[in-house]
Amino acid sequence: MSTQSAFAAALIDPHLPCPDGLRSANGADPASRFAVYRNNVQASLINVLADSYPVVHQLVGQEFFRAMAAVFIRSQPPQSPLMSRYGDTFADFIAQFEPIAGVPYVADVARLEYLRVVAYHAADAQPIQPEHVSAALASPQTLNKLTFGLHPSLHLLDSAFAVVAIWAAHQQAQSLADIGLNQGQHALVLRNGLDVEVFAVDEGASVFIRHLRNGLPLLAAAEHSPPFDLAQTLALLIAHHAIIQLNYKELP
After folding, report:
1. Putative DNA-binding domain location, by residue (predicted)?
2. Tally of domains within the chain
């Protein structure tokens, strides 16, 4: 192992000794100086995860979160200097982390929180004005060819747990006692202006929006989805500026 690799490995694993060959300009003990630096790096990475996953942090408590994050950092150190995306596999790690197996919904809450991070950093896009969308919807001659381009920040999550209700409860410091934690929810995440918004939608609406995102025309997307309120779903997308393109796809 090269000196650089040994340094990087020891930096994220406190069980490894100080790398050989380090020197201190002022004569201080290199091992002590390295230990301080390693602690600072560890604390910084844990803080990055805590910032990205604040509800997970609240759910499991500070002590448990920091211990779990430290294990994650050792197993999956940063691969990029861009810290905004660090922790993209944290939810999968949580799902396999044995000490938290008794609280299975935490992994999906982490997935929801990461989608919020992704949405926040997604590219900007100019939404179609509501009146233009309404005009397109009012044209029966071309309605079967109408396709929507959706905002790049838009993401969907299907969960076996009440992830939106759990996330929302922690925004207002509410108790989880009245939430049916095992009642599955379908989450819609998108950025509206500078605000990342989270909504619970019906299964049919979630499938419909996925079809739209995959380029299926409006009517075909609705026909190939479980029952849902089409008008309500379109109103949600329009009101929150999720539609950025109107196109017309020739049908075979």
Report:
1. 3-94
2. 2
| DSSP assignments along 133-151, one per residue | HHHHHT-TTTGGGEEEEE-
Last residue of a domain, one of 52, 73, 103: 103
For residues 132 and 234, state if they share a domain.
yes
**Is residue 117 situated within a structural domain?**
no
Rounded Cα distance, 214 and 217, in Å: 9
Query: Which amino acid, 36?
Result: V
**Are residues 87 and 49 in contact, defined by beta-carbon separation less than 8 angstroms?**
yes
Q: Please indicate, yes or no, if residue 108 is contained in any of the structural domains.
A: no
pLDDT single digits (tens) 72-86: 998 898 888 778 888
Q: Could you read off the pLDDT of 172-199 as tens digits, one per residue?
A: 878 787 888 899 999 999 999 999 999 9
Separation of alpha carbons 146 and 126, rounded Å: 19
- The model carries a pTM of 0.88
